[in-house]
Write a structure and sequence with these properties.
With 339 residues, this protein is an alpha/beta fold. The protein has one domain: Alpha-Beta Barrel (TIM Barrel). The chain has twelve helices and eight strands. The chain has helices at residues 6-22, 60-67, 85-92, 112-121, 136-141, 146-158, 179-189, 213-232, 240-252, 288-294, 307-310, 316-326; strands spanning 27-31, 71-75, 100-105, 125-129, 165-171, 192-197, 264-267, 273-274. The chain has an eight-stranded mixed beta sheet with strand order 6-5-4-3-2-1-7-8. The longest helix is centred in the middle third of the chain and has 20 residues, at 213-232. The termini are close together.
């Protein structure tokens, strides 16, 4: 994975430290649309929605000025459904190169031309969902032909050499035996991969949550292999602490101590603040301190260990150490860790 340049690394560390002490979020997820091209089995979004109340691109400047996150996820729904997505990104990106912007997408609508446009607008990392390394991905996502499309467009974009594409595998009961095969596919395509954990809270479907003894045994074996491969290869970017906590989450059936609303939060498509995408208590832009007081300090939910949480559910020294090792550069130029 390409490392962040020195100047941007130092700004992330500095602003992140200030946010941590001031109880402002480190990461904000902007859900720029509720509409989606897919009908995924593990998601409560799906299909077209009424987007007339969506924030306009220039509106995002106010949110950046107030919340001052150092990392922003641009997500949905399917963010690529917005024709003005590059303008949204340009309004999120500050002149000092903050925040670090991650586009979270199924890539159903991605083309090499749009990839380059979004990079130029300010996207630092492209997170692409992948559940299976074959056409079962189409069925799981409710989008015929999706895997073939990814097989064409991901290598085409990776060939530009920017090393900024990361497949995200959400581990479910359906694909837990294949997470190493997905790592193999990432390497074939010349991209990176990380892992996140399924939550039944979003849809209420417990069948996709791996908790039977045989499932957990298989999951341990697969994650052990991932950890071994991560030690000797650099295209698997999930931190060891994240992999360990993901294992514990499935084994115990939950993960207490969530800091949603404090370390991270969601901005909905119509501009409200939510603690996370699965907690629907809504606040106005200037009410993040109220969210912390009312929600975060009384939050006992342990039903998820999604990616945004897994990267922040740590002490600040651990978070800083892992990012220095994996993402931050202390040379004058960006460094590439190609596969």
């Amino acid at each position: 994975m390409r490392k962040v340049p020195l100047s941007q690394s130092l700004r992330i560390i500095g602003q992140g430290s200030l946010n941590w002490m001031a109880e402002r979020p480190i990461v904000v997820s902007f859900e720029v649309t509720d509409s989606c091209t897919c009908y995924c089995r593990h998601c409560d979004h799906g299909g077209p929605k009424d987007d007339r109340k969506n924030l306009r691109p220039a509106d995002y400047r106010r949110y950046m000025e107030t919340l001052k996150p150092v990392v922003v996820q641009v997500s949905g729904g399917e963010p690529l459904m917005r024709d003005d997505l590059a303008d949204v990104v340009r309004n999120i990106k500050q002149p000092n190169s903050l925040p670090y912007i991650i586009l979270v997408s199924s890539w159903t609508l991605m083309t090499p031309e749009r990839y380059l446009e979004l990079r130029k607008a300010g996207v630092d990392q492209f997170s692409v969902s992948l559940d299976f390394a074959d056409s079962r991905h189409d069925e799981f996502r409710g989008y015929p032909g999706l895997y073939q499309h990814l097989s064409d467009v991901i290598p085409a974009c990776a060939n530009y050499g920017h090393d900024d594409i990361v497949l995200n595998c959400c581990i479910t009961a359906a694909n837990l035996s294949e997470i190493n095969l997905l790592a193999d596919q990432a390497r074939v395509w010349g991209v990176n991969i990380c892992y996140s954990a399924y939550s039944a809270r979003r849809t209420g479907c417990r069948e996709l949550f791996p908790n039977a003894p045989g499932q957990l045994e298989k999951l341990r074996a697969e994650l052990n292999r991932i950890e071994q491969r991560r030690n000797s290869h650099n295209w698997i970017v999930s931190a060891p602490t994240t992999l360990k906590a993901t294992r514990e989450y499935f084994e115990t059936g939950g993960a207490p101590g969530c800091k949603a609303g404090l370390r991270f939060l969601v901005v909905t498509a119509d501009g409200k603040l939510q603690p996370c995408s699965m907690q629907f208590k809504r606040y106005e832009l200037d009410q993040q301190p109220k969210m912390v007081s009312e929600f975060t300090k009384n939050n006992h939910c342990d039903e998820c260990y999604v990616a945004i949480r897994s990267n922040l559910d740590k002490s600040f020294p651990t978070l800083l150490r892992e990012n220095v090792a994996n993402y931050f550069s202390f040379g004058s130029e960006p460094k590439s860790n190609g596969c």
